[in-house]
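User: New here, any thoughts?
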Amino acid sequence: MVILNWNGASFLSRFLPGVLAHADGARVIVADNASTDDSAEVLSRDFPQVEMMLLERNFGFCEGYNQALAQVDSEFFVLLNSDVEVTLGWLRPLRALLEANPRIAAVQPKILAASDPTYFEYAGAGGGYLDRLAYPFCRGRLFDTLEKDHAQYDDPRPVAWASGACLLVRRSAWQALSGLEPAFFAHMEEIDFCWRLQNAGHEVWYHGGSAVHHVGGGTLPKTNPRKTYLNFRNGLALLYKNAAPGELLWAMCQRLVLDGVAGLKFLASGEFGNFWAVLRAHFSFYGSFGYWRQRRRAARPHLRVAQRAGVYNGSLVWAYFARGKRKFSELGLR
């Protein structure tokens, strides 16, 4: 288990005892992204049994994990956020699933809110889905609407993406795809990785027989313009990199229109920081278009329209805002 840490000393103190208690024999490693708080001192003083890996600078979430996991020799590894509380027996069902089916390359548990574990948590919930424009959502979470957990999503199943907050990955698949996309820095990187896994012929799963509790927003709150910027920029790159040729043009055109609507909505509500973040996201994407085009060309042999698990053929934006659909079950998906 590898926890990528950046200035998260308080989370380490709060959640590492549970991680160690329920590690089920796994090595526990904290890779520190050049923290400026007392994370290293906390680890040395309070958790000497945890392996500490000091990275030379803050590489961000994506390249930080790429750097850290390149130094880990294990058939499987877990990417675990520092603000996740694990539960008794959480790891074994995930590991058993990958051991039983070599086609499965990644799996996430049920992710519940640490503040109230009767509700699903935003980042992953009951497994990740995408609509036809690559807007992400989850079983148990559409946009900001979270469902209460009534065991309605406990069944293991293939999904479009698994959350990077708690992600068990097959090392061979990780290495074959060179890990996370470093240019994303953070946010939506696991969606890109899982889409690439599916394009390469692997499966991505959710297992509701395992559960963890996630604080969420530990590094950047949802309303932070930096997060808005990363989500909009990476959303464009995600779609451009991975969509099949036959679906790319129309989907990109629609995304541009909807991004414009979102930006105007921010402006109308006085959220000038988020409005500017949307503009900067587009400027950044177009300014780096040569890089993204190279990434798409490298992936072209695997890009196809073949039916992928966890894809909603409608528009989530239309279903949610125009038709009032607030629950996953109302989308007609199983």
